[in-house]
Amino acid sequence: MANPAEFLQEDLADGGQILRLSGSFTIALIGDVDGRLRDLSANVRKIDLSAVEHMDTVGAWLVHRTAREFDSEIVGAGKDASRLLQAVSSADQTDIPPRPHPPSFERFLAEVGHGVVSSFTTLLRFLGFVGQVVKASFILAMNPGRFRWHAVVQHFDMVGVRALGIIGLMSFLIGIVIAQQGAVQLRQFGAEVFTINLIGRLTFRELGILMTAIMVAGRSGSAFAAQIGTMKITEEIDAMRTIGVVPAEALVVPRVIAAVMMMPLLGIFASLMSVIGGGLLCWVVLEIPPATFVQRLREVTPMTDFWIGMIKAPVFGAIIAMAGCFQGMQVHGNAEQVGLKTTAAVVQAIFLVIVLDAFFAIFFSEIGWN
Amino acid sequence: MDQPNIISVQGLCNSFGEQVIHQDLNLEVRRGEILGVVGGSGTGKSVLMRSIIGLQEPVAGKIRVFDEGMIGKEEDEASDVRRRWGVLFQGGALFSTLTVAENVQVPLREFYPDFSKALLDEIAHYKIYLSGLPADAAHKFPSELSGGMRKRAGLARALAMDPELLFLDEPTAGLDPIGASNFDNLTRDLKETLGLTVFLITHDLDTLYAICDRVAVLADQKVIAVGAIEELLAIDHPWINEYFSGPRGRAARRGHDKHNNNPQPELHQPGRS
After folding, report:
1. Topology of domain A6-90, per CATH?
2. When you count CB atoms within 10 A of the terminal residue's CB, does the N or C end of chain A come out lower?
3. Domain that holds residue B121
4. Which of A26, A83, A91 comes nearest B126 by C-beta?
């Protein structure tokens, strides 16, 4: 077994000191020798390597650095050691530029500045992107032959059909939660029967569509961003452009159309599942039979609630698909960007959906659709 | 300790589902040599390397590296073998969130947590320079480097631990001819200076002629021949004949002969390229 690296200081006859190195000057056995060599304060005139058993570049570096610091002479180096010393000394960079590291306050200001600038440029780019999509849609409407039916149908499947299971289950459970909470609260006033109002109005008007939109943003908006972002990295989108295929026509419009068409259908489905969940709870807990539940539901839920949902759904679908495709198109560089932009797509889509939902809520109340 | 073979592969079998990649493959890598591994696309050169370094679990066979069996070792096992080898992946495989210097320091920090920050920085800097990168590359992120620089940075990381054994997966692929021959010189210089053993997968005939001591040919799911290029030329196998005697093979050979007949005084300065 090799001995660990070690050194001794000896005084020379004509002043100064000689370092006598011994053991293995290799990365695994260097131990604390680095720190001790750094702390040397004596005038080292010579470094003797004759007792060194084995050396690698780390050991050679330590010897070289010490010799450079004290301007000392290296003696007793074997053939291998001399070669290593020559290699590391030729690679010695005394003028390494330190890594730029501005003070934290400066960095904070810079980050705020970057943030402000990038949100404005993102907004501008998003507007430009929406413009592109609208233009592409018009061109496609004029030339229906170029429309990619196949892609749209494929996205119907991905956005709509494959989401039925999870959206159905989620809505069913939300219906149960609304009914259960409503029943508990309204029981205090002996008004359990109003639970049905709560279920009917809340699901059709608000929650059915909103929860569906959030689910679609998480499922499909993110998928759009990741798909397009990956195509961007693998230069598929550049290839399309050089062939003469407009990415907005080929990639974005089919996805937006699929989302716009699927959102209302998913919204209806989600609302129905919520009503079924709520009805089930009313039946089991409040002992309201299904027939009575349906009759009462039809009395208290105005048709306008359904229309409000159906007006909102395609708008949300368009927002989600556009945010996803837009963020996908913003990817450039490496795979990490795909992850970042996918997250951004979902956050942006859900944020915009909720802002618009608030706007719609006030709007429809103002026009008297209470 | 001083066994002549650093790597020994015996009876290796690899398959993906129905597709058999290796069938009873044998290979030995000797201490201190540069072994080139060649073979057509899809003959399992990278799979062989991945099997040796433990990224691919073979169906059958024995693999010994530094006289230690590698089959069935988990990531946290055989760490004293892992610290004695360095691997350069095809694309460099640099950690994209770290700078080049931090990339080089990853293995050092992992195995030697006691090293001071100053020493880590010094080691990273001379390794980066030894790998042929300019000093200011140390603080750059992989996304700011060109493909060739990324390979050099990957090499710097592979060399971080002063390995005895270096795996290079197509190091010159995607480099321009000047960059490729610089990389060849660099590999040879490092091998001579640091006493490395190199396992080198390549398609580059010039690399084979310039730096490889022996060449292993992969075909028909096994290593059909190992030897110096002159020995391989004497073997009568359709793929070997076509490979070394095709137009590119002949050109590389002519270039090599010419170079040997008019030896230029060369200043091998590591880092200068």
Report:
1. Transcription Regulator spoIIAA (3.30.750)
2. N
3. 31-57+75-229
4. A91
